[in-house]
Amino acid sequence: MRKRLFSAIQPSGTLHIGNYLGAIRNWVKLQYDYESFFCIVDLHAITVPQNPKELRKKTIEVAKIYLACGIDPKVSTIFIQSQVPQHAEMMWLLNTITKVSELKRMTQFKDKSEGKGVLAGLLNYPILMAADILLYDTNVVPVGEDQLQHVELTRTLARRFNSKFKNLLVEPKALIEKEGMRIMGLDDPSKKMSKSADSSYNYISLTDSDEIIKDKIKKAVTDSGKSIKYTDTKQAIKNLINIYALLDNAKPADIEEAYRRKGYAAFKTDLAEIVISFLKPLQGKMRSIEDAEVIKILNQGAEKAREIAQIKLSEVKKIIGLIV
Ligand code: TYM
Description:
Elements: E1 4-9, H1 17-30, E2 35-40, H2 42-45, H3 52-69, E3 77-80, H4 86-95, H5 100-104, H6 107-112, H7 120-134, E4 140-142, H8 148-164, E5 173-175, H9 210-219, H10 235-248, H11 252-258, H12 264-288, H13 291-320
Parallel strand pairs: 1-2, 2-3, 4-5
Helix pairs in contact: 3-12, 4-7, 4-13, 7-8, 9-12, 10-12
C-alpha cells in the first residue's frame, strides 16, 4: 500500500508565491509517490475575522489554484474541510487530551492573539489541524517551515492517545523542502511572506496582474550596497534570489554570477519577468476552469474523504468508550 500524504491551505486572504513555493509546488511532485489528500481548510479560515461572501469565493479559488498548479483530481483527493464533518468531531475528541499550555505556546497563536478578546477557535486551531491529519493515517505532511510546530503537536497528540488508549493513530512526519520553505515578505525580509500581512506589498499574489507584479518587485526592499549576493547578511536580496532560482530552476550561484556586473534594477526587472511568465499560464488555466467542474471534483473528493475519515473516527470513539 502506498503511504499517505495530507496537506491543506486556508482559503483566507490571497494565496501567494510563498504558499506555492513552500507547499503546492512540492505537492504536485509528491502526489505520484503517495496517496494524497489536499484539503481546503475553511473551518480554519473562520478563526479570524472573515467575510462570508469572500470565504465562498476564496474556497472555490483555492480549488482552482490546486488544479491549475497541477494537482490531478484523478490521482489525488481534493476536498473542502467543512464538507467532511468528521474533522470537527475528531477535533473534539483530541481536544480532551490537549493541554491549554501546549496551545498557548504555539508561535502562530502568539502572533495572532495580540490584544483582547482572543477567540477559543484561534487557540484550538492546531487541534483541528491534528484532527485533519490523524483521521487519514497520514504518514507525511508537506508544509512550509511555519507549520512545523503544529505538526509536532500532532505527533505529540497521536503518541499521547496511543499510550492512553490503544495504538490507533499514525504519527505523521512533516516534509519540509529546504528550498522554498520560508519565503520572506518583500517589504520586510525579517518576516515570512504572509496572506494576512498589513500591506499587499508584502506578497506577490498568485492572481496579481503583470503591472502589479512589476510594481511590487520594484518596490521590494533591498539591502544596502549594490551587489547581488546570496548570503545571510543580505536577507532581502537573498530572498529575491531564492524566488528567482525556484521559479527559473536556476542555482543561486549562477544567478549571482549572471548579475555580477549588474545592479539591483536590472535584477529586479528580470525577476519581474520570471514571475510574470510563471504566473501567466497559471492564471490562464485558472480562468479556464468552470465553477461547476470544480464543485463536482470537490463533491467527489469529500465523498471519498468522508468514507475514510468515518472509519478512523468510529475506531477512535469505540476505544474511548463512546457507544458507536
Ligand atoms: P496556510 O494556509 O497559512 O499556508 C499554506 C501552506 O503554505 C506554506 N507557507 C509558506 N511557505 C513558505 N514561505 C512562506 N512565506 C509561507 N507562507 C505559508 C505553509 O507552511 C503551508 O504549508 N495551518 C495550515 C493549514 C492546515 C494544514 C492542515 C496544513 C490546516 N490543516 C493539515 C497541513 C496539514 C495553514 O494555516 O497554512
